Amino acid sequence: MSAPTPPSAAVVTGTAGHTVPREEEVLTPAALEFLGELHRRFAPRRAELLALRAARRAEIARTATLDFLPQTAHIRADDSWRVAPAPPALEDRRVEITGPTDRRMTVNALNSGARIWLADFEDASAPTWANVIGGQLNLTDAFERRIDFTTPEGKAYALRPAAELATVVVRPRGWHLDERHLTVDGEPVPGALVDFGLYFFRNARRLLDLGKGPYFYLPKTESHLEARLWNDVFAFAQDALGIPYGTVRATVLIETITAAYEMEEILYELRDHASGLNAGRWDYLFSIVKNFRDGGERFVLPDRAAVTMTAPFMRAYTELLVRTCHKRGAHAIGGMAAFIPSRRDPEVNATAFEKVRADKDREAADGFDGSWVAHPDLVPIARASFDAVLGDRPHQKDRLREDVHVTAGQLIDIASLDARPTAAGLLNAVQVGVRYIEAWLRGSGAVAIFHLMEDAATAEISRSQIWQWVNAGVVLDDGHKVTPELVRGIADDDLAAIRAELGEDAFAAGRWEEAHELLLRLALDRDYVEFLTLPAYRQLTG
């Protein structure tokens, strides 16, 4: 008879037939008890904050506007406060690489030459139990230098000397996602607390011994109250394990439109643990569509490829982010270069590399302290752009950008972008959405599609734009109105093309019809689903 479970421990459930090798190394009784305590203390507040999200969205639907918060004006007006100084390992962040925590990516990202690796349990990782537990094992194995990888072709990968490795910054799942394999009092534990809690419990002390620390990227944050919850989680976790207060460092992704109006407040709430803010693109655009989806024609976004960081409302967002970060002593980290180099087409590479170079040159010139890439081949390009501006300096926080003055209206001035939805953009949204969802359902969250590394944010903006264009009655450049019938026809033709390209056996081995049906349901149902990963998770095997 097994020993009784401690009253505050998380319970492993629903893993029959899906046991992960070495799972017991991660899910020790002490680790489960720690997760149980995190859940009991913080899950109720998390539920309250998710309810506040819904209330705020209802207010946006009523008013079709957003503004800086009057009740926190005193925080923005107080020039005296700063975030905690960056630890040495996070002082220079000029190039950061992103990717999931599978074994191959772990070795390649650490060896990439980037200063930081965003080790992703969120958008670049489908949350199968194997990925959740395997990622935790891979990170600890890397810190203990007992990780390597050999391809089926026999190519071996091993870690470089410690001084050459990227610093790990873990991105846990967002507050909205549950982990069905772990429950406390019959309730699923929030995925954010699982990813954070297991990583912190297993590695905080180990990282301190290595001269680094438990560092995190916080995704999908929508308000400073959510940042306050994270800060309280950090404070409790450090105290519970005897880790010095302030050891945790967090970089917040400003990837929701509501968070863009609360950047200073978010840094203030996390000021003892804050490291910086990051400016993304796809999740930010997804958030704009989600929040203003019924706001009329002036909020209709064109093709996602047409919404670059130079669009007026995107430029307002990025410049405000740099201004805010440097005013408060935090790092400003730029967006993603998602191009995946071709081994067969040097002309494609040359054109793409030039676009990446121009994008990183712009970010460095605007005052960003670093930026993201999705592939090791892009590390030297991004590094050259920031080297040219930074030289031997670790950052450019002394550039306060006091010339920047962004109004509330500029952040949502979508109509200022001179571009409209096109037939090619609709086709791309369908193609990318289906291909990404199919791979996600098979357990892969980072997928190369049409020379770009795509993650869940791409699928979110794809299905959201289809929904918006249908409901707004958009007329495309070829004269066709976007209707459910048009979308279904495009999706059916694309599915037939995939079947013909793959052959019947390979097609049947995939999850193409499920992905096709899920995309159409999410894009065409009258009721908009907040996150595609919520219904998709119910179909995820493992």
What would your notes on this structure say?
By secondary structure, this protein is an alpha/beta fold. The protein has helices spanning 23-26, 29-63, 73-77, 103-110, 129-143, 191-209, 224-241, 257-260, 263-269, 282-291, 312-327, 346-366, 379-390, 423-441, 456-471, 484-502, 504-509, 512-524, 533-539; strands at residues 11-12, 95-100, 116-120, 148-150, 156-158, 167-171, 178-184, 187-190, 215-218, 249-254, 274-279, 331-337, 370-373, 447-449, 452-454. Helix 2 packs across helix 6 (191-209), helix 5 (129-143) packs parallel to helix 6 and helix 14 crosses helix 16 (484-502).
Quick structural gist:
The protein has about 550 residues and is of the alpha/beta class.
SSE layout and pairing:
Layout: E1 11-12, H1 23-26, H2 29-63, H3 73-77, E2 95-100, H4 103-110, E3 116-120, H5 129-143, E4 148-150, E5 156-158, E6 167-171, E7 178-184, E8 187-190, H6 191-209, E9 215-218, H7 224-241, E10 249-254, H8 257-260, H9 263-269, E11 274-279, H10 282-291, H11 312-327, E12 331-337, H12 346-366, E13 370-373, H13 379-390, H14 423-441, E14 447-449, E15 452-454, H15 456-471, H16 484-502, H17 504-509, H18 512-524, H19 533-539
Helix pairs in contact: 2-6, 2-7, 5-6, 7-9, 10-15, 12-13, 14-15, 14-16, 14-18, 15-18, 16-18
